[in-house]
Amino acid sequence: MERTFLAIKPDGVQRGLVGEIIRRFETKGFTLVGLKLLNVSRELAEQHYGVHRERPFFGGLVEFITSSPVVAMVWEGDGVIASARKIIGATNPLTAEPGTIRGDFGLNIGRNLIHGSDAPETAQQEVALWFKDEELVSWQPHLTPWLHE
Ligand code: GTP
Ligand code: MG
Question: At which positions is ATP bound (predicted)?
Answer without folding.
Answer: 9, 57, 85, 91, 102, 112
